[in-house]
Amino acid sequence: MPLAPVQSTQFYSRGRIFAWTLFDFGNTAFSVIVVTVIYSRYFTEQVAGGRLWLWSNAVSLSMIVAAAIAPPLGAAADFSHNKKLFLWFFTLASIICTALMYFVQPGMVLLGMVLFIIANTGFEGGIVFYDAFLPSITSRHSYGRVSGYGFAMGYLGALAVMLIVILMLPDTTHPDYFFYVRLTFVVAAVFFFIFALPMFLWVPEPKSSAQKVSSVIRIGYQQARNTFRALFIEKKYPSIARFLIAFFLYNDGILTIIAFAAIFMETVLRMQPREIIIFFAVVQSSAIIGSFLFGFVTDKIGPKKTITITLLIWIFITVGAYFVTTVGEFYVVAMGAGAAIGSSQSASRSLMALLTPKEREAEFFGFYDGFCGKASAVIGPQVYSGIAYFTNQRVAVLFIGMFFLAGLILLQGVTQPEWRRTPPSQQ
Question: What residue numbers bound the domain in which 406 lies?
């Protein structure tokens, strides 16, 4: 009998990392097509008749739901050792509702909001469990690099799906133009589904314990309450608590800019739909490069210093957006945003992984992605739309810069654990 080939541990590790990053490659189709570029404008202008506050309410409501369920489900995933089951449930909900957005016609505000709320809740909720896989697929000293790979693959996926959309969308004068616009939501759903599959097929997880779902969720809620008490009342993990508050603030700014960027370009800079799509496709290049480069920078100087650099870039971006008057000037600002967006979120994920006790990964990532990451997006859109209503969108963007400044100040008080590779003689 011939001997079976020896499986390389290094190859297997790289294979798992690649499968994990493909989920980022796929799910960004939802983020860019639905949240940022197309559905946000379609819903605001065609479905809601230009009422910006309806879009901000839809974004905020979806984040309220995601924030409410993410921490207990994260704790439940830790307890049951079955993160994949939860990730599959949220992913499928997002994909199905994204495809159903094809049926949203002008005036169907309620249907448009409900489908988006469920789809975005599924997308955001799934990220909690997806992020929690990071510490199990790579070593501690490579968190920044691997996290950067994930975000870079995400922006590469966004670039790929936008190129597909550019090829399929006709000119705005075409009689069936909005049919093709609605068809892009189906494309995003199929793209998400195809590239999410490798995560479920090839990234392993320990077998789940024999627990009823109701028991697991109940224990999850109890654990989540205990986690909140440990973090913010008993203050057992002061650096984690401080980082989560800082993340709450600056992530609020990031998510708000993502949700309103295309609307800003269409209403303030008067860019045409095809120009906006091409614009975002070009900006993805800086996002891809930024995610890769800052991943290595994170492993070199540490995630805390990396986040500090990216927050300074974000402050410059909000000030720059206030003053831009031409599309060319906005390209300069947006290229900086592209470089900062993936790198700031990637470095944040790395710092959270460093700070989190290994036995409470999904639970603490529930607070990171859910309580702080999702709940922060409840405030930002409301602030933006409110300021825009009483003044204008330029002032609203400038005000969002205060979220980055506050997060930057709080971040400086976080104590960062050691992240560098340990020499073999000390291992």
Answer: 15-200+213-414
The answer to whether the Cα torsion of 198, 202, 205, 209 is positive or negative is positive
d(CA 314, CA 173): 37
E strands present in 33-144: none
- Residue 192 and residue 160: Cα distance in Å, rounded? 12
**Residue closest to 312 by CA, chosen among 372, 250, 385, 224:** 250
Instruction: Give the three-class secondary structure for 411.
Output: helix
Token pair recorded at residue 84? 């994949």
CA nearest to 132, candidates 302, 369, 342: 369
Alpha-carbon distance 117 to 58, whole Å? 6
- Give dist(CA 421, CA 399) in Å, integer: 40
Instruction: Write the CB contacts of 139 (distance below 8 Å, at least 6 apart in sequence).
Output: none
Q: How far apart are CA 365 and CA 353, in angstroms?
A: 8
How far apart CA 59 and CA 120 sit, in angstroms, is: 8
Query: Is 125:70 a contact under the CB 8 Å cutoff?
Result: yes
Over its C-alpha atoms, the chain yields an Rg (Å, rounded) of 21
Structural domains counted in the chain: 1
Handedness of CA 91, 92, 97, 100 (dihedral sign): positive
- Let me know if residue 290 belongs to a domain: yes
Calculate the dihedral angle through the C-alpha atoms of 272, 277, 279, 284, rounding to the nearest 10 degrees: 170
- Please report, for the domain that includes residue 179, its CATH number: 1.20.1250.20
Residue with tokens 């490579």: 142
Residue 174, pLDDT above cutoff 50: yes
Q: Could you tell me if residue 205 is inside a domain? A: no
Secondary structure (3-state) at 212: coil
Higher pLDDT, 39 or 140: 39
pLDDT at 1 over 50: no
Q: Is the pLDDT of residue 8 over 80?
A: no
What are the residues whose beta carbons fall under 8 Å from the beta carbon of 336, sequence distance 6 or more? 286, 313, 316, 317, 320
pLDDT tens, 137-173? 887 777 767 877 887 788 889 989 999 999 999 998 9
Tell me how far apart the alpha carbons of residues 312 and 326 are, in angstroms, rounded to a whole number: 23
Residue 382 is encoded by which pair of tokens? 């409301």
Token pair, residue 376, equals: 């922060």
* Cα–Cα dist 12/202, whole Å: 10
Give domain status of residue 426, yes or no.
Answer: no
Q: What's residue 353's pLDDT?
A: 84
Question: What average pLDDT does range 70-94 have in this prediction?
Answer: 80
Residue 290 backbone zone (phi > 0: left; psi -120 to 50: alpha; other: beta): alpha
